[in-house]
Amino acid sequence: MNSLKRSSFHVFVWVCLLSQPLFSQPIIAESSDNRARQRFEIHLEKIIQTFTAIPQDSSLADQVIRSDLRQGAFSLQALARLYDDQHGEPIKKIKNQAKGLEDGIGAYAYSEEILKFAIKNGESASNIASLEAKHALAKEKFLKFLKDENWLSPDKKKKELLQHLDEISWMKNNKDRDFILESLAKQSEDVVKRDLDMMELEDGVHELRRIVRWILMYSSSLDGLIQVGSPAAHCSVAAYKDIHKTPISNSKYVIMPPATHEPKPCALSACLIFATAKVVKDLGDIKDEGQGREAVAIEKGEDADLHDLLLKADVIYKEIKKNKLMESLANDFRSCRR
Fold first, then answer.
1. Of 14, 19, 148, 244, which one has the fewest beta carbons inside 10 Å?
2. pLDDT of the residue at 162
């Protein structure tokens, strides 16, 4: 199996994991009244609690990939990315730890999904045996990673990451709130400033989806700071005024944590969030189909015909620009600062 198939199944696993909440009850950080630090503590505590609850036996690796740990790692990474240039080395260490955990889970989950794919599609016995051997090696590597990085010693890992938080001089809550909202506004504007080539599947279509998806992930990592406004409210972009009547309004991408601990939540226009989520979904469908075609073509020694798919992606990108979706979303973020 090739790397293109790996990318497709890697995304599939991520989508499945992202659709589930980490815990049924909210976790409250009690060590600080600083909202920025609280958010980090909440995501960290969810991860630590999950590792603590998983038995360290022969089922460990499989239980990790079936838990919500990858979503938790994504959330912690998203939060750290927002402060990447603000708090220096301590925040980079947290980001790298979260990314390492997410990558490790993803790599092992990929080996399992690609093995299932081969069995389902009737691959030869020799190919399946080879994939089973690779899956066993991936499991061994994953367990070694978890042990070496202290994830299997949850209390020790928690202490390590909390020490990084202790090294940070946090902004006051009001200043932090403005910083976050302006950062999200700038990242929204940067989507169209990149001028990506939609005739390229990986560097164009996939990259556009990544940077748009990060905006939604940043928003959901903020423990209720960002909320979705009423779907019935006026939409500043006429093209999206009826989007709340479509299935995307129930997408996992538009679900934000409740503003239980947030004194001044920012409610964004529902139509803009729904439209942004639809971009992520539609580009994801195009990317997965394109990677599937490429994988089949490679097996046959042929070139994949992606022209129809890339044209669809180009239409989506042009519509984003024409409707000023990302600029309108940036305006919503900034309006909360006033």
1. 148
2. 96
